[in-house]
Every structure is written in C-alpha cells, then in structure tokens.
Write a structure and sequence with these properties.
CATH class of the largest domain: Mainly Beta
Helix content: 10-25%
Number of helices: 4
Shape: globular
Number of strands: 10
CATH superfamily of the largest domain: Jelly Rolls
Strand order of the largest sheet: 1-2-3-10-5-8
Order of helices and strands: HHHHEEEEEEEEEE
Distance between the termini: 35 Å
C-alpha cells in the first residue's frame, strides 16, 4: 500500500469510528458506496480527488483532513517533489497537500498540476478558494464566467459554486490553492 493510501485509510477509519458511524451511515452522508468506503479504509483503493471531496463534504471536514499525518514537527520544510499526489481524472489532475488543514488556522494549502488540454470539474465545497498561478495559463470557469490566469496572477472566489479548471494549452499548468474555512 502506498504511503498516501495508508494515511487516507487511517484518517477515514478514525473519523468514522470517532463519530460512531457505520460504513452505511457514511455512505448515506457522502453518496459514496459502502464498498468503495470499505476499500478506501482497507487501503485497497486510492480514492480520486472527486471521491475525497464527496466524503469531506458529507462528513463536513476539510479535504486535507484525510491527508494529515500525526505528530508533525513545528518547523516543516517541504519539497513538493517528495510528496505523493492524490490523482484524479486518469492522472490529468494531481493535487499535492502541502500544508493540511488545522482547526486553529482554518486553512489548507495545495499545489495542483493540470495536464495539457484537460479540464477538471471541481466539487462544490465550503470555504473561500484562492488560486495563485505558478506556471502556464489556466482558464477558471466560475459559474459560467471565464477568467484567464497567467503566472504571478491570483483569484479568490466562494468555492460553494460550480468551478472548472481548464488547461487549453500544450503545457503543464501548475498553481497553488489556498482554501480558507471561515467557520
């Protein structure tokens, strides 16, 4: 089992048991099948970004709550190349959790890679989303309104609306996402 699968499996099982929920209960809350939840908890399935968002929304937790390791040091230097991504859309959308959610800080930070000529339809979720461009040109469709972002450009929006990340170019697009959870 890959390290990231193990972390996700342990965190999902811990959340479910702490709340006294059965797999059936979690399935009803999230819209994810009981068998898929069992496979994730047993480390037999590496969930997609979309599946993790469904579980996070249903359990009302942050996305990175599933990616959080325990007992991290207070000073943390991170190299993105050493992180394992959560992969969605057949490897065309990769999410690296840089700084997972912490309830006292109320935010989480990711770096995302979107492959050439690909679009990712994001799940609606709570919080404000901040997108900071690093590489390439990203088109962000927020409820039908399109915004083109280039390196060193940023945008902020409420994430509880439909939003689609689009890479219309032949280059890899890389950007950071900060999600702030006001309450």
């Amino acid at each position: 089992m890959e390290f990231i699968q193990e972390v996700i499996a342990n965190n999902l099982a811990k959340m479910r048991k702490e709340r006294g929920l059965s797999l059936d209960n979690v399935s009803e809350l999230t819209g994810v099948s009981k068998s898929m939840l069992a496979q994730i908890e047993n480390g037999k399935s590496n969930p997609t970004v979309t599946t993790l968002w469904k579980i996070a929304n249903g359990l009302q937790v942050s996305f990175s709550a599933f990616l959080k390791e325990v007992d991290k040091p207070q000073i943390e230097k991170i190299n993105r190349n050493e992180l394992s991504p959560v992969i969605d859309d057949d490897g065309n959308y990769l999410v690296y959790s840089i700084f997972p959610f912490h309830p006292e800080k109320k935010f989480e930070i990711f770096t995302v890679e979107l492959k050439p000529r690909f679009r990712h339809i994001a799940e609606k979720h709570t919080g404000e989303e901040y997108v900071l461009m690093q590489r390439g040109t990203l088109t962000l469709d927020i409820q039908g309104e399109k915004f083109e972002l280039n390196p060193d450009e940023m945008i902020k929006f409420n994430a509880n609306t439909e939003h689609i990340y689009i890479n219309s170019t032949e280059e890899l697009v890389r950007f950071y996402i900060i999600i702030f959870y006001p309450e």
